[in-house]
Write a structure and sequence with these properties.
Blueprint (H helix, E strand, L loop, with lengths): L6 E7 L9 H13 L2 E7 L5 H8 L5 E6 L1 H11 L8 E5 L5 H6 L5 H9 L2 E10 L2 E3 L2 E5 L4 H4 L2 H7 L1 H11 L6 E7 L2 E13 L3 E2 L3 E2 L12 E7 L4 H13 L7 E6 L1 E14 L2 E22 L14
Parallel strand pairs: 1-2, 1-3, 3-4
Antiparallel strand pairs: 5-6, 5-15, 7-9, 7-14, 8-9, 8-14, 9-12, 10-11, 12-13, 14-15
Helix pairs in contact: 1-5, 2-3, 7-8
């Protein structure tokens, strides 16, 4: 009887993500995957980004697994979007915020996260197209959006999630409302907003949460959250209450569901994509690339019940 052929696995590792990845942990990951029948090739980010690695070499593998933070996974997915038939993606989170891991119910312990690779199921995942770039879970402007990419990596390692909170508080003094016209599937919204986020996630930089009942990662729709400029203490209290209650349909905080969205500003506005610098723009058009990639989930994920084994 012929032996089962090895499954070719590309392991993309960011050794500097979060508090860093020890050689022993990496060895455990590789050994465990090899023991399950994968033929593993390790690629370290550094000279080449995760996006460059997966775009350049991903087509030759049956499965891509990212070890790093959300930025590493986002970069790897961006590279895969440039392939005709991208392989499924697994994620072993070692970053600071790990928003995608929270959304997918993936454990933070690498040894436990390996189980989502070995025994997990594959689910379709919507990807955002931001001009000629891609994002996995959020594109945003305004309050708190600069926290992730402006907070030094050394501070993230030393303070962990606290670095995001402290960075967000420091950002409050720099909040500037932006007059914005937002065109979406259901019409047009206009106003002065201090935050706008186009998301496909239930967790945003550890600072805000969306209810799982409001988010479907493979329905071809984004959740667009808009926060108006508060003009009174009552408005500010309303915004805080909306975030705490995960209820985004007040006069000051609104959530839309749309397959595409266009933002028009009176002046250039800085954006982020998955926690990285997204450039400065007066016009932004974002499209949902429905079910563009498949991502491996652990059995405990609420999405797993709607998915099939990838192999």
């Amino acid at each position: 009887m012929e032996s089962q052929p090895f499954k070719r696995l590309m392991l993309v590792v960011n050794p500097h993500s979060g508090r860093g990845l020890s050689n022993s942990t990496l060895g455990i990951i590789v050994n465990r995957l090899c023991a399950d029948g994968f033929c593993v090739t390790v690629y370290m980010t550094g000279l080449r980004s995760a996006e460059e690695l997966t775009a350049g070499f991903g087509a030759g593998y049956d499965l891509i697994v990212c070890v790093g933070g959300d930025g590493t996974l986002s970069g790897a997915i961006s590279g895969l979007m440039r392939l005709a038939s991208p392989p499924p993606v697994g994620y072993i989170p070692t970053g600071t915020a790990n928003d995608i891991a929270s959304t997918l119910s993936l454990p933070r312990d690498p040894q436990l996260a390996i189980q989502s690779i070995i025994k997990g199921v594959s689910a379709p995942f919507d990807i955002g197209c931001f001009g000629d770039k891609y994002f996995a879970y959020i594109a945003a402007f305004g309050a708190f959006t600069g926290v992730s990419y402006l907070t030094p990596q050394s501070a993230k390692r030393a303070l962990g999630h606290l670095a995001y909170i402290l960075g967000g508080l420091a950002d409050l003094s720099a909040i500037k409302p932006r007059h914005t016209i937002v065109e979406h599937d259901g019409g047009v919204v206009e106003g002065s907003f201090i935050f706008g986020g186009v998301t496909n996630s239930t967790s945003v930089a550890g600072l805000a949460k969306l209810s799982p009942s409001d988010v479907n990662l493979s329905d071809g729709l984004f959740e667009v959250v808009l926060v108006r400029q508060p003009v009174s203490i009552r408005d500010l209290s309303d915004i805080i209450a909306s975030i705490i209650k995960k209820s985004y349909q007040s006069d000051n905080v609104r959530m839309l569901h749309t397959s595409k969205v266009r933002f028009k500003f009176d002046e250039a506005v800085a954006w982020t994509r998955d926690g990285e610098d997204g450039g400065v723009h007066t016009r932004v058009e974002i499209k949902n690339m429905a079910r563009a990639v498949r991502i491996l989930l652990g059995g405990s994920s609420p999405l797993a019940t709607r998915s099939q084994l990838w192999y």
